[in-house]
Write a structure and sequence with these properties.
By secondary structure, the protein is mainly alpha-helical. The protein has one domain. The chain contains three helices and no strands. Helix 1 (2-24) packs antiparallel against helix 2 (33-52) and helix 2 (33-52) packs antiparallel against helix 3 (56-74). It is globular, with a radius of gyration of 15 Å.
Length: 85
């Protein structure tokens, strides 16, 4: 089990860094579902690893990271759905 948790944590770290690098290089846009899903999955992996290892501050920041990613996936931009007269 410990090895699986370590692998999940390392994959989470790689995915999080990949999302940031791809955003910085202009390969992804900040509103891209792919960008948000990379952050959601990476946050989940780091939550598992941090929780298993008792690193609760890291768990907390990654829970927030994951929630922000979910918000990015499931919310509409402010300009959509607004009715103006």
């Amino acid at each position: 089990m410990k090895v699986l948790i370590e692998v999940v944590g390392w994959l989470g770290a790689v995915l999080m860094l990949s999302a940031y690098v791809l955003l910085t290089l202009g390969r992804l846009k900040s509103q891209s579902p792919v960008y948000h899903w990379l952050n959601i999955v990476s946050g989940a992996g780091l939550i598992c690893n941090s929780g298993y290892n008792g690193a609760y501050p890291s768990v907390m920041i990654n829970v927030v990271w994951l929630i922000i990613g979910l918000y990015g996936v499931y919310s509409r931009p402010a300009s959509q759905g607004v009715v103006t007269q």
